[in-house]
Structure formats: structure tokens, C-alpha cells
């Protein structure tokens, strides 16, 4: 069985590693130059993209920002999972919001803006505390902005002047007071079977995921059922095949969809050590229409996991390898500021034990690069 | 970090997969033609053996039958772990027996025979029920023979006539009545730290390992301590670095060493799914002098594992992937009679649950190729 992944980063690499154990050959496409490469060594393989598409049983993606022309060709082969529309939902906030509305899935109150004059209407409808996001990433000058009070609106408009909002509209959202961010990772295979992992609880710092804990603390059956209902609506509504990550804001008992990622996801890396079947293996199973693997935590009802991202540094003390239940993962990249270099999965029996292991782990890491870790370790031990 | 493995079979492949996750680059040497290959694809890499030796931080082996000249060159680089003498102990039963005697480690009563006339003395000393083994494998006409009664000795001698017993002596052992075969897999790193996995209990069929269960049933602390003592004596006596497998016969409370394998071992494959750190990862950690990883079963005191070999067939029903706790591993080889094609790891909480899972699993496998499985499943459920 051969799977061709668009994108040649760590997600393709981890798919390759889990696939190889099952006898599945995963190849990757470096979409910057359309070459087919080995997902670990990144060395070019001796075949063209056309040949690789021809040979593959399935095409899939490790990220949503694949150039649309490539996705179009992939879709035409009849082998692409998830489908092109589903991938584009993850790449375009306008499509994402339209999907959520169509499927009647709770999400943040918002407006789509294609002309700056519409911003007044947004303040009128959503209030004066707003988050403004470019609907698509990767365009110079486009990004995210915040409005804290109505009086700043003229200045904001000035800042946004000159953007082509017809080509790249803005999504304007009410700034939400939420309790926490959780994510639901799950898979649907070609046959339509669905399996989801326990909810993960995600801690961000300066816009990047730093720590995930799964199952999320204080998550009862009702919350889990709500998340599953959202997930099922989404995958069925999109005729989705593969692993899908749903980022959710929790406000009391309510779950609002923040963002969809049509792929394996950083907040699901804990599944490598903590779940019976990893998200990478289940993604491959899903797209190849194999039976999905068990998604529960390994080690019984009390078993819990954490994932700690290693971001922008490589100054960890490798003595951390000696800690029981600590699993080190390294992507083999050159250090750059804010770059995801690797992650550490930690498994334990119960949150207290997990917190204690994270506290121990923090002793081998520089506090500068792991600003959330000590507090999170303390929270879990309470 | 780069590790060069002599041998390019599934053991090197599994080292590669675990190494890649840690950022360790594993390359393999196909010793049939001295080319350096990718451990999974088996494709030649763009470097000579000399270059690969030069670049590697460590050289190691996936099997003991590496041509001695290659081992000699490897040893001269100063990077070979385990050392050449330790590897040769696994390849030569005369060296193995000499080591066991030197270290005063219990093993089967035996004699070394370099002349057929010595066989009479063997019967005299060891009795008339004997197993006769060529001291080294891979020579035409050499293998294993059995003597069941003294009257058959002349016929046996006739059969052995013409063998060059000075070049390849025979090891003659008393045929032992043992209760079962167990194995101890453990690792010692360059710094001398030692960690061992729980004892595995091994079921053979026609000379091949079919099922391992770990921890071995009915193994108390005293037995485990005995095995650890043997292991420690061996690795310290050989100044051994890496994973070592010790096959043992259990007779009542006594453990006798049957065979040593200076490498990761089939009876340790369960550690991939069942132990906190796999034998493959711990082998790499040991030879690179990293801290050894935890070797206990995942999931608490009741956690148990089994490994089922897939031998000479590929007619399994892939629906088995849907069974919780069942982990499929496939080596990507062409089917041949008696060839190890892959293995299935099964984890459970307690032996009864493990037996029940093995029983379920057997429904997806052909009874012809898994002759031990149903009985073993029944035994565990008792």
C-alpha cells in the first residue's frame, strides 16, 4: 500500500514512521518545488510527482495550505482523502464559517467583511471587542488584528486600507470570554466508520500550542457527547475521510467551534504514546479504508497523557530520556525562533502523577522556552 | 546522531523506525554485498561502506552472523557496540559455552567434539539422549541432530562422517527435560547502566518462535532475580553494550542458559506495544550512551503482552486491526515458507483478558500457520 502526502514536514514524517510498521509506504511531496521526497530524510525520490500520483493508492495532505492547483490535480486522480473541498475549508475561514453555518454547528458570532465600511456594522452587531482575521493565511500584510474599543475603529480602518478584501475577505469575530480551549481529534474511514480520541485540553502561549493534556481535566460524558455530535455532523457533512481536528472553545457547558484542521494535529501528538492507536496510524487506516484502531488511552480508566512542544530551542537535557513514561520526539530540523523542533509525550496514571512527571520533566528544560510547563504541572497536581 | 547497523532485515528496520522518532539516523549494511542501504526501502544509499563507517557515531549489528572480516574492520573503527568478541559468542556455540563456563553460569551439561570418536565419551558422560549441534551455522551439511538411544550411535557417526570437526566442532548436549523456555531481554549502555524487561515465555513450533508472553506466567520475584543475576554476570563479563537476549530453560526453580543473542530479539518484539520503551529504542540508547528507558509493562501491575509471529503466510484478515490492544507489524517481504513476515503485538490487563484477545485474534488468522495460538489462548484464560 502506498500513500502520497502533500507536505513534507514532521506530520508526514510521523505518518511515514507509523505506516512503515504496518507495511504502508508513505512518500511526501515538497509543495514548494513539487518534488517527491522521503518523509524522514527529505531526500528526493527517483520519481516525478505524476508518477508518484499514478503509483499511490491514496493521496492525502499533512497541511491545508497546499496550492489549489495541486489539490485540483490530486482530486482529479480520484484518490484524494480528505476531499479538496474539505481541505479548503481548513485553509479558508470564509468557507469554514459557511460550513459551520450550513451544518448548524455552534461557533463564535461573526461577520464576513469584503469592504472596510462593513466594519461599522460589525461593531453594531457584535460589539466593540473584536478579533479580525484574514480569511486566508500566507498573504503579505494580512494577518490578525484586535479591536478593543469603538474609538480605535478609524485607526484600524487606516491600518487595513489597501488590502484586497474581495480576494481575501476578513472574518470578524466577537472577542469571546471562554473558559478554555479543547480539541477533538477523530477519524472517519472510507466506509464511514468514526472513532474519536478523548478531548484534549490545550494551552497556548503567544499563539502557539505549548501543552496538551488528554483526556481534558473536568470533562464529563455530556461534554464528550457534545463534542462527538459536532464531530459527526462535520465529517458527515463534508463526506470527510481521514483524521480531522476540531478546535473548540468551552464556555461553561457550551462548546463553540473555533477552527478546523483537515489533518493530523499537534494537539493529537499525545496519541503516539498515550492512545492504543496513534492519530498518524488512524489517519492512514482511514484513507486506506482499513478498520480504525482503538482510540482510548492506554492503561485503563485512570490513564492520562500530556504533550509538551519543544519550540525554538534544542537545549534540553537528554537525561530526560531516563524518566519513566516520558517519550521524546525530535523532528531533525535546524533551530529557528518559534519553530516546532519536537515534542515530548508523557503518560501517567492519574492527573496528579502526570503533574508530578511534568514537574520532574521541567527540570531538564529551560524555563524560557517552556513558559507554561511549571504552572500546568502545578495545576494538575492540585 | 548516526548509527550504522550490520544487517538489513526487519530488526534494522525496527531500529530505524524507533530511532527516527528520536532524531537518530539509522543506516543498514547489506552484508551480502557490503552496500549501505535504507533500512526500510532497502534502496542503496549514496555512500560507500567506508564512508558510512566514517560518518557513523556508532556501529552495531542486527544479527550475529556478520562475516568476521567485516566485524574486524568495524571493531578497528573503535565504534562497534557490542564488541566483536561478544558478537562472536552469539555466532559460535564453542565460544558461547566457554563464556558460560568461565562466568560460572548454569547451562546444559555438554561436551565439545572435534573428533567423532569423542561421541562415545559423550554418551558415557551425558547419557544416551543427546542433542548434537554444529558450533556455527550456515555451513552446508552442518546442523542439528538427535541421539535417542546408544544403539543409534554408529548410524549417527556414519551421518556425521566427512564433516571437518576441527574447523566447525560439534557441541553435544544432554537432552534436557525442561518445564518451559523463557528469555530475558535487557540492555547495558556505555556508562554501564543495566535495565532488563520482564521475563518472556516463549512457545516454539518446529524450531521457530511462534508466541511470546510477557511477563511470563507464574514468574515470581525469585525467578526474576535469578535471571537478572545471570544477565548482569553476562553483560559485565563480556563488557557488553547494547541489547542482549538470553534464552533460558526453566527446570523447576532452576534457570539454565540455552543460547545468547547479542542483539534485539524476536522474543522482545512485544516491547514495542507493551513496554514503556521498546527494545529497539533501548538498543540505540545503549550504544549511543543515552539514558536507558523504562522497561516495565505499560498500564500498571496487571498489564501483560503477547507477541504472535506471522510466519510463511500473508493470508491474515486485516479486520484484525479493529481489535483493541492489537498492534500489527509487517516487514514488507515476499512470502516464503518458514519466513518471518511480521508479528502482532497484543496488550491486555491480566492474562485472562490477554487469552481472550488472542482467542479473538485467532479468528482472523489461518490455523495452519498459527498452530500454537488457540491452545495458548486457552491456557492463559484458565
TrEMBL record, chains A, B:
It catalyses: 5-amino-1-(5-phospho-beta-D-ribosyl)imidazole + hydrogencarbonate + ATP = 5-carboxyamino-1-(5-phospho-D-ribosyl)imidazole + ADP + phosphate + 2 H(+). The keyword Protein biosynthesis does not apply. GO terms for cellular component: cytosol. It holds the Pfam family ATP-grasp. ATP binds at residues 93, 133, 138-144, 173-176, 181, 204, 258-259. GO terms for biological process: 'de novo' IMP biosynthetic process. InterPro entries: ATP-grasp (IPR011761), ATP-grasp_carboxylate-amine (IPR003135), ATP_grasp_subdomain_1 (IPR013815), PreATP-grasp_dom_sf (IPR016185), PurK (IPR005875), PurK_C (IPR040686), PurT/PurK_preATP-grasp (IPR054350), Rudment_hybrid_motif (IPR011054). Its EC number is 6.3.4.18. GO terms for molecular function: 5-(carboxyamino)imidazole ribonucleotide synthase activity; ATP binding; metal ion binding; phosphoribosylaminoimidazole carboxylase activity. Residues 97-288 form the ATP-grasp domain. Keywords: ATP-binding, Ligase, Nucleotide-binding, Purine biosynthesis. It is an enzyme of class 6 (ligase). Pathway: Purine metabolism; IMP biosynthesis via de novo pathway; 5-amino-1-(5-phospho-D-ribosyl)imidazole-4-carboxylate from 5-amino-1-(5-phospho-D-ribosyl)imidazole (N5-CAIR route): step 1/2. Catalyzes the ATP-dependent conversion of 5-aminoimidazole ribonucleotide (AIR) and HCO(3)(-) to N5-carboxyaminoimidazole ribonucleotide (N5-CAIR). Catalyzes the ATP-dependent conversion of 5-aminoimidazole ribonucleotide (AIR) and HCO(3)- to N5-carboxyaminoimidazole ribonucleotide (N5-CAIR). Belongs to the PurK/PurT family. Homodimer. This is N5-carboxyaminoimidazole ribonucleotide synthase. It comes from Marisediminitalea aggregata. The gene is purK.
